[in-house]
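hiii, so i know i said id send this last week but things got crazy w the move. better late than never?? heres the sequnce for the chain we talked about at the cafe, plus the structure i predicted for it. fair warning i was half asleep when i ran it
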Amino acid sequence: MRRNHLSVKMVLVGLLGLFSCESLVDNMNTDLNNPTDASATLLLTGAQLGNVSVQEGHLARVASMWSGYFTGSDRQYKDIYSYNVTGAAFNDVWQFVYQSVVEQTKLIIQKSEANNNRLMQGIAKVVKANALGTAAACWGDIPFSEAADIAKYPNPAFEDQEAVYNKLQLLLDEAISDLESGLGTSPGVADIHFGGDAAKWKMTAYTLKARFFMETKQYDLALSAAEKGINAPTASWVMLHGNTLNVNENLMYAFIARNRVGDINASLALAPQLLNPGSALYRGNAKTDETARYNYQYMTVSPTGTAIPVSPNTLSSSAARGLFGQTTSYTLVGYAENLLTTAEAATRAVGVASGIEKLNIFRAFLNNGGGLDDTYKKQPYTYKYEPYVLADFEAGGLLNKDNLSTANALLREILLERYISFNGQILGFNDLRRTRKEIAGVKLVPSIGTDLPERMIYSEAEVNSNTNAPNPVPGLFVPTPVNQ
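okay and structure toks below
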């Protein structure tokens, strides 16, 4: 992490220009000062944009290919899909995490402490936790306490993954305390997600806590946190997108449909087969109709009406707006995640009856059109998500034809639902690795060979510059500590 101080202007230009397809917001003020002189409010927008690039950009595309959502079909994405990848592919993402998020949020917190603006501190800590939590999940051991202090720690130590998760929980506890304090001035529109709404940031913090407890398999704690988490679709933490080319488009759309057409489709992916009523692997049943969700998430006809391989749905017209459409919001931490976390955690920590109850809350959300754009809530698209009962999961029941235990049959359904609901998100990759060894886990076939990826490769630039980087560098198929 050796570097010179970047100005906020350079950070924002880097975020908007490093990937030509990953421009994020409209109407940004780029006439900015050095970060040591900039206000905390000004720095906040840059840190939030940096985090969006971590969550929605290259890392999400790679995770989606390695999770059975997308297929890499050309150029380097064909190689990455076949697990032929080096640390150089992750240099930019690593930079976004540490320079664009961790360093900037550190400055925000320092400046906000000076005037006791605890609201700003709380927001910054949640953003920081999101970026570092994603890094810990994807890479395992990472720099944490010594990060973003190059003068004191030119070679920051890599801390154990489990220790990092513990510190993330403490960071989020601090954020919640800050957000509950009622102290501080709102950043207003500089907070591009919630406009300074402390209540929504607090719920997001709890859902993040639940996410991290899930990843460390502390399911009782995950359930407790999720019960205080995001409680409505409108409270989800999303990145809003628009239709200005190279400025505020959905990053998946910009890459798949415009800048790198042909590099990614879903022709060999598992997820569309699970959703397609015409597939032998279709997961629908007498109580579940996935027709609308299949068409919302995937398409087989281009915008011009030409037949194409099954692909992520990037349609962006008034008649059809797909999951990866130009203006479709991208979920960072959402209501669906929180509901499904309560369902899985309740099953594991409380019991089957509680798990079914929680799952049915989510299914009622789907049955009311949740998770779909309005253009897919009408004919010819159909959907149905009727409530399940205990008998459906008992041996020989609707969802247990292979006679698993009742608990495993329920977990299998919940994990399948999480898998489908996290299409295009890094979270799906995390879930697969967490539950891969379980009988109820989603069963993915490697795109090549016999092994599935267990982590991202450490940034080549970091390994070459930081004497404390892991040596030897763990390979792609080495599980991170929490998944061993």
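btw The first helix runs from residue 8 to 17. thought thatd interest u
miss u guys!!
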